[in-house]
């Protein structure tokens, strides 16, 4: 049965973590996979999460099945974190998914079921797993221009020019905030312009929001999602608790459908549940129990928000300090864009061969597309990483 299978291509992000683990050098630095690390290089369990987890374990009386949609209290709480407006919530539905990757796949399958010939438009570049997930669901993929490699900012006019050509009922995948991999985000004005295009041309926006709270703040980062949800008849959203709750391995995410009327949102959710049943039946419960415990307790929620804000501010500082180190080592302001980017990532504008040099000569692990994870930096790595980048540029 399996003799005709060949070894598949390795995942460009997950394979890096493996290579990093095997690297014996003491000065190696992991700027690959998108996880937050503290000054000691540890991905901590947040204090609010530990408190909620203790409460969950203390109060849990059963491990019986939950249901195909997961925990409904989690679903409501996670939905209101992204879309707090009651009018929007009244025509929205959501299910708990195994991480936002699970949400991406479920919603991609829903698109394929509802509109079999649909094309999904991805930003160029986009998260390395977006295209494989869309194609795995049988969807066609095209790209719209997004990132200006010269300025390292969003090329808004090129983006709008490309999106103006997207046909009705095709899908445009957008990053809610903290664009992966570039770190360059849409401005509120650009969100409004894309929304107007969607209104005019009838394409369906699909927003992946995996880093809410790491850009400009929890509320600010949801501007685009909220603006689109309020102004468009339909919207798909997948959100993640991996990063902002630090629950990476618990696989806790949501798939959200906003429809023109409540019954349509409910019917679409029914289809998602049917697909869940034939895929994994129901999502894992632990992470969702923790998130719901945090979000439904005002004191815990405030403590969580404070911890998240501290992480965000530390990232802002790391960006500023990496820039100063780079100015010092290159005698130029070529890397100042790092300070303008949002969230965990920036792309350096390096070719794969330069990323390979960073890895092989300096033990600095970034993704081949030029992405580095600022949230993987320890303060004590800054000078070394800056020297390595300066040597390779
Ligand atoms: C990343 O982009 O590094 C993360 O979202 C992890 C992943 O699953 O790829």
Automatic annotation (TrEMBL):
Q: Which cofactor does it need?
A: pyridoxal 5'-phosphate
MF terms (GO), sorted A to Z: identical protein binding; L-aspartate:2-oxoglutarate aminotransferase activity; L-tyrosine-2-oxoglutarate transaminase activity; pyridoxal phosphate binding
GO cellular-component term (any): cytosol
Q: Which UniProt keywords apply?
A: Aminotransferase, Pyridoxal phosphate, Transferase
One annotated GO biological process: L-phenylalanine biosynthetic process from chorismate via phenylpyruvate
Could you tell me which InterPro entries the record lists for this protein?
Answer: Aminotransferase_I/II_large, Asp_trans, PyrdxlP-dep_Trfase, PyrdxlP-dep_Trfase_major, PyrdxlP-dep_Trfase_small
Q: Which Gene3D superfamilies match?
A: Aspartate Aminotransferase, domain 1, Type I PLP-dependent aspartate aminotransferase-like (Major domain)
What region holds the Aminotransferase class I/classII large domain? 27-389
Q: Which NCBIfam families match?
A: PRK09257.1
Q: How does it assemble?
A: Homodimer.
Q: Which family does it belong to?
A: Belongs to the class-I pyridoxal-phosphate-dependent aminotransferase family.
Q: What is this protein called?
A: Aspartate aminotransferase
Upper classification of the source organism reads: Bacteria, Pseudomonadati, Pseudomonadota, Gammaproteobacteria, Vibrionales
């Amino acid at each position: 049965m399996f003799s005709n299978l060949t070894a598949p291509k390795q995942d460009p992000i997950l394979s890096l973590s493996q290579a990093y683990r095997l690297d014996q050098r003491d000065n190696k630095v992991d700027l690959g996979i998108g996880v937050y690390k503290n000054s000691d290089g540890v991905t901590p369990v947040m204090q609010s999460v530990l408190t909620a987890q203790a409460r969950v374990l203390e109060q849990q009386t059963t491990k019986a099945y939950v249901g195909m949609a997961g925990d409904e209290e989690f679903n409501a709480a996670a939905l209101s974190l992204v879309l707090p407006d009651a009018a929007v919530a009244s025509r929205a539905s959501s299910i708990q998914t195994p991480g936002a990757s699970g949400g991406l796949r479920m919603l991609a399958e829903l698109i394929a079921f509802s509109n079999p010939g649909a094309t999904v438009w991805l930003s160029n570049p986009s998260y390395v797993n977006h295209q494989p997930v869309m194609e795995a669901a049988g969807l066609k993929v095209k790209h719209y221009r997004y990132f200006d490699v010269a300025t390292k900012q969003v090329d808004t006019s090129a983006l709008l020019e490309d999106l103006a050509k997207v046909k009705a009922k095709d899908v445009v995948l957008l990053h809610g905030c903290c664009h992966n991999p570039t770190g360059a985000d849409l401005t509120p004005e650009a969100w409004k312009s894309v929304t107007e295009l969607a209104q005019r041309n009838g394409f369906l926006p699909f927003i992946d929001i995996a880093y809410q709270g790491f850009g400009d703040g929890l509320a600010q980062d949801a501007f685009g999602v909220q603006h689109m949800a309020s102004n468009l008849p339909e919207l798909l959203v997948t959100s993640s608790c991996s990063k902002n709750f630090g629950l990476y391995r618990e696989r806790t995410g949501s798939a959200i459908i906003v429809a023109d009327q409540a019954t349509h949102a409910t019917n679409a959710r029914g289809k998602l549940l049917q697909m869940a049943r034939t895929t994994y039946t129901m999502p894992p419960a632990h992470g969702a129990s923790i998130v719901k415990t945090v979000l439904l307790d005002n004191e815990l929620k405030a403590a969580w928000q404070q911890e998240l804000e501290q992480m965000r501010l530390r990232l802002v500082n790391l960006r500023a300090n990496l820039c100063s180190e780079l100015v010092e080592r290159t005698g130029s302001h070529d890397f100042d864009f790092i300070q303008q980017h949002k969230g965990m990532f920036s792309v350096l504008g390096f070719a794969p061969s330069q990323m390979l040099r960073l890895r092989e000569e300096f033990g600095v692990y970034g993704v081949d597309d030029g992405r580095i994870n600022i949230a993987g930096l320890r303060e004590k790595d800054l000078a070394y990483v800056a020297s390595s980048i300066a040597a390779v540029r």
